């Protein structure tokens, strides 16, 4: 089995470039030169997201393809959260020199496949040696005749809604962690959809532009947990946000996983992160498929079932655990 | 002294956002939301570059500001190499949780200052925990009424030229390494410009658009060493490239450092990397300040003083050393 250091940076980059080849009309120059060039005729939306081995993913918990694809899901969700449509990504991969080449190519295949599934392409990247695998995806997108939707526009009287179910990623992580600590491994087979929600969440990024078109006043993706996003949106918009916990849609099978692990699944839906569905405020109609979870009013702060969210906070993507 | 894990991701990102605040006309939404939005009215050039602690930089060799600034120099050079003008960057910082906050803020200050010195701005970023500090800068730029200059356009009869002196980064690295292995530390004081060439190379990115305007037929920045770039350009353009080693401009004081270390400084200029000046082929005039170093002819391969460059190759940014 060849390692990354044996095969060398330049040959690997050539292999990546081949995997990423795309003939999209708006790509003037694709990967393989100093920089890529694409045509833009309006506002460009850009965001970057990094995942680190042992911290954001584990190769014994997810396949290399899932790990690569998930980084694209996370980064692309930020484009959707502005109302944008993903058009291209750049990728930086850091890995130990002893990494098997096949593993790196599989991670890259996941990145390319997920990017293509979004109708976008890989525009270029970098490959470096690092003590742990580090994947940085920078996403770029366009706004198709909609104004960008920030965190700051929610107004009293608006309705709060989410574009999909929550808690799957946190529930799946809890399952994998429990098995790591001795729980019955057959739990994974009994709850495949929840485990899949951790390994490769499937938010629908098209909901971002759809929400923008019907006039969403504020929007974000749920990366740090619903309550954390509520706190941020509340502060940015200068309003009070109230959510009913019973109204928050929970991932399929999440309640059963909660029973099996002795955890309240509502907590995963409220405080768990990384589902990357969209949270938005609407003053008027909302798109099909969204679920109303609460209200916007004058005041300040984020509340769940009438109580301040304080006790539910604390999950952060940066921690030592 | 506070550490990164004590202060937390959100407060740090808020501090970064404050440091990066910019009111440039074409930035619709700056950092602080899910994604940044900037206006583009033509081709957008994008490239990404990653630097890893212990591999691409060392805190005992460079200041945190220099380390941050250098990552911007490296990434921005790829925009210049297409003929583009840098307009914005996104930054992903990974670091161990025990990293002192001051160090991280100084790295960020270097990133912001270098970006601003190029007339561009920091559009956003990410902050994660990782075993070593990892800095990824994704650069975006525009082409001001010039066509992008690829690696593939050099033609027989063109002249090869570079936009600045070479070897400074390799000579500075050799000095620092020698002192690490017992050489007299006063060598640093005797050769400040060469050490500075490693710590923070100062290529002029404005030379990229200038070269594009006068009709450069192929261009790249010297990141992996001149001979490596010659090999790449030769293969991409399908031509033979000949360089005269005596014509390659060497960094100020480089010959003296070579004498002090017993190394042929021409080797640093030919095979050393990370100076990030531009190498281009011109069919007609070249801009002021460029130095002619060789010729383009029919055939294949890269030659120095009439010999194939094979023996000079080997430096690669990905290695275990």
TrEMBL record, chains A, B:
ATP binds at residues 125-126, 223. Mg(2+) 4 binds at residues 34, 47, 78. The keyword Hydrolase does not apply. Mg(2+) 2 binds at residues 49, 78. It catalyses: thiamine phosphate + ATP = thiamine diphosphate + ADP. Pathway: Cofactor biosynthesis; thiamine diphosphate biosynthesis; thiamine diphosphate from thiamine phosphate: step 1/1. Mg(2+) 1 binds at residues 48-49, 126. Keywords: ATP-binding, Kinase, Magnesium, Metal-binding, Nucleotide-binding, Thiamine biosynthesis, Transferase. Its EC number is 2.7.4.16. Catalyzes the ATP-dependent phosphorylation of thiamine-monophosphate (TMP) to form thiamine-pyrophosphate (TPP), the active form of vitamin B1. This is Thiamine-monophosphate kinase.
């Amino acid at each position: 089995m060849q390692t990354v250091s044996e095969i060398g940076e330049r040959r690997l980059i050539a292999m990546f470039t081949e995997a990423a080849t795309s003939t999209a009309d708006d790509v003037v120059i694709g990967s393989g030169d100093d920089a890529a060039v694409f045509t833009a005729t309006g506002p460009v939306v850009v965001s970057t997201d990094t995942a680190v081995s042992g911290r954001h993913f584990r190769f014994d918990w997810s396949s290399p393809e899932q790990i690569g694809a998930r980084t694209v899901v996370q980064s692309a969700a930020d484009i959707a959260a502005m109302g944008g449509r993903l058009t291209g990504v750049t990728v930086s991969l850091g890995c130990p020199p002893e990494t098997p080449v096949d593993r790196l190519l599989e991670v890259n295949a996941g990145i390319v496949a997920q990017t293509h599934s979004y109708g976008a392409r890989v525009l270029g990247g970098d490959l470096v040696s690092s003590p742990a695998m580090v994947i940085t995806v920078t996403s770029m997108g366009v706004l198709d005749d909609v104004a960008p939707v920030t965190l700051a526009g929610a107004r009293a009287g608006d309705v709060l809604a989410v574009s999909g179910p929550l808690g799957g990623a946190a529930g799946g992580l809890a399952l994998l962690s429990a098995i790591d600590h001795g729980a019955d491994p057959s739990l994974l087979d009994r709850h495949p959809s929840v485990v899949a929600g951790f390994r490769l969440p499937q938010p629908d990024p098209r909901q971002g532009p759809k929400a923008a078109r019907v006039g969403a006043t504020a929007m974000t993706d749920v990366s740090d947990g619903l309550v954390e996003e509520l706190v941020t949106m509340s502060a940015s918009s200068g309003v009070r946000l109230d959510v009913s916990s019973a109204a928050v849609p929970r991932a399929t099978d999440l309640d059963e996983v909660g029973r099996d692990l002795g955890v309240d699944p509502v907590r995963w839906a409220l405080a768990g992160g990384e589902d990357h569905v969209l949270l938005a405020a609407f003053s008027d109609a909302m798109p099909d498929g969204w679920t109303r979870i609460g209200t916007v009013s004058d005041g300040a702060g984020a509340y769940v079932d009438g109580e301040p969210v304080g006790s539910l906070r604390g999950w952060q993507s940066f921690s030592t655990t």
